[in-house]
Specification:
The chain is an alpha+beta fold and 99 residues long. Helices cover 28% and strands 20% of the residues.
Amino acid sequence: MRTVTLKCDRCGATAEDDKNFLKRVAVGVNWGGYGFQAADRKLEAEWCRECLIKTGLCSPQNEADEKIAPPAPPTLEDLIRDIVREEIEQRGVELETTC
């Protein structure tokens, strides 16, 4: 029986006989047209799931993934709230809230 050891091109982590351990990551330039052609220059590597999650290329699927995932960028709504709060603090304005 033969054992195949897979190695992540980014972090060097290894696994044996696990078809789902590595995913192909490719970066290329498409000079117009649709999709990549064989003649287009493309860089490829194989990364493990942890590297994909750490770089934000793969969404976290469970709590363990959430711990290693980068923080989500603020939404437009969050940014607007922050700007309004800063303006209120700088000007000392009190807002009336009604419900």
